């Protein structure tokens, strides 16, 4: 239900904030100083809402995609039910995005990196990668980039 319907991103592009690599690296640094790897849904929700406080729609995307879960009770990373390549709190599809994430130094199975890659993806494409879950998150937010 996540980002499986879009093509992989080019390795290097410019954004309003610099190269996409810079955006991803800075996002990861922000996470490393502001979040830990929470284990329960309320802690995950708080971390997601804090990290995406400047992009509230992304917190709603996480709510709809994963119900604010990253790690399951058995210690494994949440995987999509429709496509098991969708992973983590932001349900990033590893089939489409693993190579780009790796080039950016991000591990999609890691909570912080999963959110950092989602920010990177949002900076490039807005909410389009999560359009499959738009009927859920667009009800609570009247806007999407």
Helical fraction: 40-55%
Give the overall shape, derived from the CA principal axes: globular
| Structural class designation | mainly alpha
Distance between the termini: 19 Å
Percentage beta strand: 5-15%
- Quantity of strands, as a count: 4
Total number of helices = 6
- What letter string, H or E per element, gives the SSE order? EEHHHEEHHH
The low-confidence runs, each spanning 5 or more residues with pLDDT under 50, are: 1-18, 31-36
Compute the gyration radius: what is it? 14 Å
**Largest beta-sheet characterization:** 2 strands, antiparallel
Strand order of the largest sheet: 1-2
What is the residue-mean pLDDT, rounded to a whole number?
Answer: 80
Describe the structure.
This protein has 145 residues and is mainly alpha-helical. 46% of the residues lie in helices and 6% in strands. The protein has six helices and four strands, in the order ββαααββααα. The strands form two sheets. Strands 1-2 form a two-stranded antiparallel sheet. A two-stranded antiparallel ribbon has the order 3-4. Strand 3 and strand 4 form a beta hairpin. The chain is globular and about 30 Å long. The two termini are 19 Å apart. The N terminus is likely disordered.
